[in-house]
Amino acid sequence: MSLFEKYAPLQARLDVVKKVGTDPFGVKFDDILSPTRGRIGNREIVLAGTNNYLGLTFDEDCMAAAKKAIDDHGTGTTGSRIANGTYEEHTDLEKAIADHMGMPSCIVFSTGYQTNLAAISGLAGDKDVIFMDADAHACIIDGTRLTGASTIRFRHNNPEDLDKRLRRQGEIEGGHALVVIEGMYSMFGDIAPIDEFLDVTHKHGGYLFIDEAHSYGVFGPTGCGIAEEQGVLDKVDFISSTFSKSLASIGGFCASIHPEFEITRKVMRPYMFTASPTPSNVSAARAAVDKIKSGGHLRANLKTRAFQLHKGLSELGYDLCADPSPVIAARRPNEAIAAMEWNWLLQNGVYVNLAVPPGTPQSSSLLRISLSAAHSEDDVNQIITKFKDLKEVSPNLMAEMMKSMQAAE
Ligand code: PMP
């Protein structure tokens, strides 16, 4: 019995998926040509699953800022924020985001994942109770595991269910309720009624924490996210986000209307015991914040493309998970069919995400598309055309797969 025996069922599942073609969880691009194009071998691929919402990965100002930071301060900080790892790039970015959000406090972290680990574990103590959405992202769940707090899950995007559970909980002796939701959910692209969650949370004396990883830069008149879009940004206690999507870099932040949030820098383990983000990553993100503030035209194009794609796929009869948003996911009957179709799309020049359980809500198997402001009308038409062709070939793909699997046995 080896140490790896426990992974035999997972290995078997992966083997089936790999027999269909490329390993969907290990794709390697030979070149990235632009925010919307990659190359595998001699095939050019339309990128439609990269979370590059504003298309800033090749933005000249962001690239220049990253290069200058390397020239000025080198390639790495070699230390944590509480030791030698705080540079002017970090404090400058924290100030820029705090100003953008209109909040007195903002802390920058090394990744978006660590942001939630750090912030949630820094905020909730043993006596507090965390209420989190049933579809919470892995890093929110993992963040709660770093605390001694008890956790309660409420029905996805359902403020009434939260209200019921908070009422049932009653007074929390010596502690508080921390409610954690997301702005736009990453798999289905559905959006939280933040205004209603705020009312419920504050009515019960709790604090609201929103992960706007997929919505900062994408929603709101100045790109602050869904809370800004719904006109309640100034009331949200904590907002976290990542630099790896709209900001086209790597890292993350948590901003707060509570100036006392600053004290958590001295207790958050995923902030204190890891190296700070590199000057180049932070500077690219800093340049992207300015692009976001003035990025109304990018958001407008992104929205137009989302409506175009949603309409096109709906008309083809695809079962889409939510209303139009930059994330558009089509439900497939099962994992094997989804994997086969994902492979066919890649072979035919379109990269989307294959999303399967346990990473998806309702155990669904999805072909997930994330759009970019850099996509043109033509790009989206190409994606729709491939999904149309896929509808026609899909029934034959299964038969072919069964045949080739039998031949391989
Ligand atoms: N929050 C959500 C909702 C996410 O989807 C992700 C990553 N996809 C993260 C946090 C973590 O961000 P990062 O990949 O930048 O660490």
Report on the architecture of this protein.
This protein folds into two domains: about 5-55 and about 295-409, Aspartate Aminotransferase, domain 1; about 60-295, Type I PLP-dependent aspartate aminotransferase-like (Major domain) (Aspartate Aminotransferase, domain 2, 3-Layer(aba) Sandwich). With about 400 residues, the chain is of the alpha/beta class. Helix 12 (about 335-345) crosses helix 13. A hairpin with a 2-residue loop joins strand 2 (about 35-40) and strand 3 (about 45). The protein has helices at about 10-20, 60-75, 90-100, 110-125, 140-145, 160-170, 195-205, 225-230, 270, 280-295, 295-315, 335-345, 375-409, and strands at about 30-35, 35-40, 45, 105-110, 130-135, 150-155, 175-180, 205-210, 240, 250-255, 325-330, 350, 355, 365-370. About 40% of the residues lie in helices and about 15% in strands. It is globular and about 65 Å long. The chain has a seven-stranded mixed beta sheet with strand order 4-10-9-8-7-5-6, with helices on both faces. A four-stranded mixed beta sheet has the order 1-2-3-12. 4'-deoxy-4'-aminopyridoxal-5'-phosphate binds next to helix 4.
